Fold this protein.
Amino acid sequence: MSSRPGVRIGVDVGNARVGVAASDPSGSFAHPVQTLARDERTSADIEAIATLAAERGAVEVVVGLPRLLSGTEGEAARAARAYAARLAARVAPVPVRLVDERLTTVAAHKRLRDSGVPGRGQRSVVDQAAAVLILQSALDAEASAGRPAGEIVGLGKPRKKERRR
C-alpha cells in the first residue's frame, strides 16, 4: 500500500497517442483508463488528462520518462519532459512527476500478446497498458521506499540564487 493515499494518474506519452491509467483511491493498484490522440495544436489530450485528474481528485500525475537503455536521455525523453511541463502547468497545483519507463511499451506488447490480444488489437490499448505499467511501477516504488518515485516537474523558471552580502 502507498504511504500516501489518493488517486494517481499515469501517462504514457507517444508521438501519436497518449495512454492514460489511474490508481485506486488507496494508491495501490493501477488500471487502464483510455487512449487519447496526441494533439499538439489544440492540446485536447492535455485538457482531457486535466479533466480526468480533477474528476477523480488526483493527488499526483505520473508521466513516463523514456530513457535510453544506457540511462541517458534522447529525443523521446526531451519530448516527454516538454509534455510533462505543459501538463504540470495545466493541472497545478496537482504535482506532476517523471518516472523512468524504459521498455514499458515492449513489456506492454508482451503482456497483451501473452493474454491473447492479437497484434492488430494491441494498437488501441498498448498505450493504456504502458501507462498502467508506468503508474504501477511508481506506486510499487513508493510503497517500497516510503517516498514518491521519480522527479517532480517544476513550474516556471527556477529562482535565482540570492547574493551573499
Remarks:
- The domain at 8-151 is CATH 3.30.420.140 (Nucleotidyltransferase; domain 5).
- Residues 158-165 have pLDDT under 50 and may be disordered.
